[in-house]
Amino acid sequence: MIKTYLTFTFIVLFHICLPAQDFTFGSLTPADVKLKRNDLDSFSNAAVLNEYGKAFMVYNDTKGYTELIVEYHVRIKIFNRDGYGRADIVLPTHRDESGERMDVLSEIKAITLNIVDGKVVSLPLDKSQLFREEVSKYLTHTKFTFPGLQDGSIIEYSYRLTSPHIFNFRTWYLQDDIPKVNSLFEALIPGMYNYNVVLRGPFPLDIQDAKLKRGCFRIAGKDIDCSQMTYGMKNIPAFVEEDYMTASSNFKSAIYFELSDIYRLNGSNIKITKEWRDVDRELVTHPDFGGQMKRDNVFKSILPTILAGAPDELAKAKAMYRYIQQHIKWNRYLGKYSENNIKQALEHRSGNIGDINLALIAGLRAAGLDAEAVMLSTRDNGVVNDLHPVLSDFNYVVAKVNIGDDYHLLDASDPFLPFGLLPLRCINGKARVINLKEPSYWIEPKSSQKSTILYALTAELHPDGSLKGQLTTTSNGYTALNKRHELANYNTTEEYIEHIDETHTAFGISGGEIHGITEAEDPLVERYDIDMKLYDGLDAPEIFFNPFFINRVGKNPFNLDERTYPVDMGTAREERVVITVKLPAGYTLKSKPDDYNLALENKGGRYLTQTQLNGDTFTFSQLLALNQATYVPESYFALKEFFSRIIQQEKIDVVLHKAAGE
């Protein structure tokens, strides 16, 4: 991730004659109309023609606090039907934990502009088509869709947001998943507020301007001067997401603000950037965080039942973990705080992430174990600031139980998660451990298990040309977890096996059984009776057989010309295939794929294949191992070439030849 720290003062840093101003709503330019898809790149289905944002602050005398006003205006051209999704707009508004301070949207305007017979036809949005969705008690989505879309439509919308949340001012994303012709942001910051400003991403600014604006903020009858900052980029390429990455916001070019100090009118200074000791005290005393961790009395009456037969600390921890897994169902809401309280969550058997894992911590403490809370940010929420505390960066909490010289990170929100394995969404850089008595500290959660799968096929080739046998698949780690989730979508195991039979075209499944569905800490073992037709009868002098038919790599997951962000899989992976086939008498191995041994540098991965015929027994083995959870961008082309060679290798058939007279 590339970061550039920007500074501003009341003197002009450098001034370019590029005025920061909005463009006229609904008034197209010839360039807007003429722009074609290939003018930017050949892959984008839409593009931002122009984007302008302005953020400034006002003091609300009635409410008694400063508010941030954000004005946003964007014009987008949709090239084809695949770009119609850009016309589905979602505007989020947030409410603070007290429920009293909230964002307010106003002045929403939206219009579709089509060129019909050389004339501009405009279709304004009917305000009755604005919909509000309460995502949680902290988040509301305002949604609308543009009318009258067609290929070449230009859509345009603007709004005004009034927000009490001034800490991060307004993050401005210069880069998006479609290209932008122009993006310009103007920030007016009163002199009494000091912000740290960071440019994140791979591209430099085309426009950076700072100047003094007199009397732009008024408080207590006094006018305060502002810094007027302008940031812009032109011809910004689309940010292309690819497999194996964390939140795209970690890597897109953007301007970030973080409030550092407030200078009062009396000359005193309030330092907003807290120390961790201040945050520790706040969290430990917070009724919905530390207050819930301390509620071990909730488990007093049920503790003997939960811990019955648990001989040691590890067994007690596992018993309490299983109890919470079974007794509080996740309501699909995230959160580092308890939403209701852990007692109600246990009684109603439902709660958010905070309810579940703070209850787990309280239960572990009730069992006499050393348990702490771990705050983190999920993979789709972005990485946390590890220079100083920013509580809003964290959106999740898990438990940490210390046993002897070891510790285990636990999330009881998923009944299929084995003890000690966090959901993949939680593997996202640093996390902060909160102890009720000791200072907090950083850890970096890792996957406690490698994600593995072993395919073992034992079969016989029959004279009628059919290959029949048993395929046993053994899964561990996230592979097993994902399969258990998939199995939960079916009423019976038989329904799931029918689904597997329908989706596997290389072979048919005549029956099967699955073990370890409910035992999360055991491997998931699937056994299927399979058959596939290799040839018609014994008259075929040669049999062509591709041994890579089990989970073949059909597509390279890495296709970019350049990737500026890491390949982050969250965990190491290993896949093995072992095939043993008994052949009819008289067959020899005419040709086969070369035995292959392909390695990534620094022991980052390996791909091995081996094929042989011993008597009438054909054997094939394959190993695909990716030994690192994360690969730096500099390793991207090696990974791309690695998978390219695998795909080529897996195209090669085995040819078995029938000896004359047999």
TrEMBL record:
The keyword 4Fe-4S does not apply. It comes from the Bacteria. Residues 305-390 form the Transglutaminase-like domain. Residues 1-20 form the signal peptide. InterPro entries: Papain-like_cys_pep_sf, Transglutaminase-like. It holds the Pfam family Transglut_core. This is Transglutaminase-like domain-containing protein. Keywords: Signal. The keyword Signal applies. SUPFAM superfamilies: Cysteine proteinases.
